[in-house]
Amino acid sequence: MTTTATQDRPGPENRPDRARTPGAALAVLPDVLRAALAWTDAHRADFALPGDVLEPHTQVNATLKPLGELAQLGSTIRRTTAPGTPEHERAGDLVTYAWEQVAAGDLLLELLRAEPFAAYPYEIYAAFAGYGLRHEGFEALARPLTATRAWAHTEQHANRQLGLVNSERRVGVVTHTDAGAVLSRTWLGGLSEPWMFEGPSGYALTHTVFHLTDWGRMPDRVPEKIDGYLRTWLPAWADGCLESGQWDLTGELLAVAASLPGPAPEPLLDAVWPVLADVQHPTGCVPETGPPAQDTAAPDPYPFIDCYHSTLVTAFAAALSLRSLRSPGQTDGSAPGRERRTA
């Protein structure tokens, strides 16, 4: 496994006893979720798009990507939490804020016009469409674009193509290829040797599950063989991430564990969540990697770009884990999208 050298991290030899206590995850998860969402809400202005976002020089990864992730993970958290709870309402407010930032879809339409060959405007739009926020003009232009041969044959990694298939499902169009065929070409779908797990393959694995299950909403889409493989090896991979201070990837692995069909993997959740809870700063943020900040009174212990994703992922994984532990097998009841090849 690719590791990051850290000092004073909570490795396996000095984890608190509560990490091995049944029910330890449920003891910390509500506070972890609440604090991560509070930090995100307090820093919503950092997700705001700059005035020149449509200019060619604008860095997508520093502007549209964080906002799209806010929309995607915020919408999942709202769907996963109980109506009327502060977490449910706050997550909904954050999605509304993100929708306002893209001018209720107008900005995404401009992006699609400027870059009809790019998938990212469509994928960002799909995060909103899956939540029920639609833009007629965007879909009118996207419809013929997604029916082209170029769209069906865009060259990309298999897990990225699976993400595009899921975006098509969310928008409600016929998918450009079969999800099962794409899944078989992923690192996870091939049931790769578990000792070959490292950073890039880890993120590819987690996103394969997210796209396959529509970000944890459809656990039953995970095939039985993959379910068994993940249940066997997730504990070892998560332990390695804890040892190397890979907090962002740890959060993603926890979200994967909570997206599996059937009973929650309680021993894994009880062992890992208390450690990640200890890493979380009192303000609610979580660093992507490395030693946790020692100054517990600091209002902003990390730069935004170094903690926004891991904090969102922590909130996302916490919401899924609470659902998995409290209501095994529960989904939001959405029907899967139609799937067949169009080219």
Describe the model.
By secondary structure, the protein is mainly alpha-helical. It has helices spanning 24-42, 64-80, 86-101, 106-114, 120-129, 136-145, 149-152, 158-171, 179-183, 199-212, 224-243, 247-257, 266-279, 308-326. α1 (24-42) packs across α13 (266-279) and α1 (24-42) runs antiparallel to α14. The two termini are 39 Å apart. 47% of the residues are buried. Residues 1-19 and 333-343 have low confidence and may be disordered.
Helices and strands in order:
Blueprint: H1 24-42, H2 64-80, H3 86-101, H4 106-114, H5 120-129, H6 136-145, H7 149-152, H8 158-171, H9 179-183, H10 199-212, H11 224-243, H12 247-257, H13 266-279, H14 308-326
Compose a concise summary of this entry.
This protein has helices at residues 24-42, 64-80, 86-101, 106-114, 120-129, 136-145, 149-152, 158-171, 179-183, 199-212, 224-243, 247-257, 266-279, 308-326. By secondary structure, the protein is mainly alpha-helical.
Keywords:
disordered C terminus; mainly alpha; single chain; 343 residues
Low-confidence stretches: 1-19, 333-343
Please bin the fraction of helical residues. Answer: 40-55%
**Global structural class:** mainly alpha
Radius of gyration: 19 Å
Overall shape: it is globular
Give the ordered list of helices and strands: HHHHHHHHHHHHHH
